[in-house]
């Protein structure tokens, strides 16, 4: 979602803040800003749009010697993406940056307005800085005012606040949104809403827990918990290697991430495949003792991966599976029993709805497992066990390689459980392990196919909508294909089970309705084919994706003949990713940072 950085030290602060924000920009990019405090004087720069606009605005600003700075990239929740709504927000003598949502901001704002406070922005964040200054009138110290401010805030937040009177200090707090504090051998202290902003700049960090707050100066860090008890500072080492992703010659991060799926899947599989069984170093089989049901919970693309797993787990591991969209799960008062293993799936490990669902499950006494791409993320730290997907940093907002690795891990988990529960013959487990070994080859992008998709994309720009259809695991793949297209092309697209079209959506069929039909050879081919024929007969424009000829389509994308539907799944996944990307390119859209979206959704 939004990105936060903070710095206390002697180096030129502007560049440090902007470099940190650049690492976080893909998480939110509708505006950005920095505030620098030096010799009790503030300098503030804000700009709408991408970070380059902020860099341009601040290009003549330089500092020498000690300073304190905070910076922010925004994904708007309250108020439009304007300069006034961009962070940092200011009071008379203080600035704040915030990630999250202050739920009681209106109530606090009303109170402050009655006290004569003037608000400049439409954001919830601005109440924090005014409330702080209001408390400062009666508090004994700025830190005490900060503590009193936090007591009055409801909602989720990661906050950095600076005040001119406390010239060398950053006040910080975390409650529901991620915040990391780091330090280095040069005596500098930094903050980031993700460690990506700190890698290469800090050798050790603390991942703050919910309820932690405190202050940092050049000399000291003091941190407290929600009961106002001083917390021991447990720094953990942070890799000093800059792992930040580069485009490496590709036009977009998304394109690079599609092309590197072969390599990252090899990483996902590494050390986990044995001849007749799956081995997860991270898993203790005790996790599954007494478990009669698996509940899979996630959002967006990760939810689609969960849905694929719901087919595989029931089919092969013979265990009851339920699926939960995290934002629904949280408020539907679910009936939870302790024989359920609660599995969350998340690329970032920070998605607010999924994280809160995980907390609910833990509170209800369920065993928990997270399948995640980011080590040390909130979900990984919170759950009983975790399996890392090893996709590497994913920068494209439209998730690609994270999905591929999630499905791969979930397939392996299915076989692991099938082995433990003896629900599949060893020969079948062995066969599927052999299939898994071929995945890196299966997703290698065929340049000729990419070229065909590039050419084909021009015929799919002006219809009145898309239906992606498929059956079985190809239904969640259809959902994922439609989501990819929506996110980056801004065209209306739906994923549908192909057998369900005749129950209503087929009424939309005409040449302006594009049907993208997933026709795998090895899973319900004839059934799906009949459904596509029904649409073809009603003149929908059909683009079929299949290794088999299909004479009722307008366009045909031929996939390889492979021996199993899961291999067809992965090949078709690549086709859908590239197809969406090429349509978005033709429409002139920003593929990596599509409008209105952000990479990591840390608000509910
Ligand atoms: O980090 P997460 O996997 O928890 O994120 C969940 C969704 O926000 C995410 O998958 C989103 O749908 C992507 N933009 C899809 O491309």
Descriptive key words:
604 residues; alpha/beta; Glutamine Phosphoribosylpyrophosphate, subunit 1, domain 1; Rossmann fold; eight-stranded antiparallel β-sheet; six-stranded antiparallel β-sheet; 18 helices; 24 strands; globular; binds 5-amino-5-deoxy-1-O-phosphono-D-mannitol
Summarize the structure.
The protein is α/β, with parallel strands linked by helices and 604 residues long.
Strand-helix topology:
Blueprint: E1 3-9, H1 13-24, E2 31-38, E3 41-48, H2 51-57, E4 67-74, E5 89-90, E6 94-102, H3 105-114, H4 126-136, H5 142-152, E7 155-163, E8 170-175, E9 180-183, E10 189-192, E11 204-207, E12 213-216, E13 221-224, E14 236-237, H6 253-259, H7 261-269, E15 293-298, H8 300-317, E16 320-325, H9 326-329, E17 340-346, H10 352-363, E18 367-372, H11 378-382, E19 385-388, H12 401-421, H13 426-437, H14 439-442, H15 447-456, E20 465-470, H16 474-489, E21 493-497, E22 513-518, H17 525-537, E23 541-546, E24 555-558, H18 565-586
Parallel strand pairs: 15-16, 15-17, 17-18, 18-19, 20-21, 20-22, 22-23, 23-24
Antiparallel strand pairs: 1-4, 1-10, 2-3, 2-4, 5-6, 6-7, 7-8, 8-12, 9-10, 9-11, 11-14, 12-13
Helix pairs in contact: 3-4, 4-5, 7-12, 8-12, 8-16, 12-13, 15-18, 16-18
This protein binds 5-amino-5-deoxy-1-O-phosphono-D-mannitol (M6R).
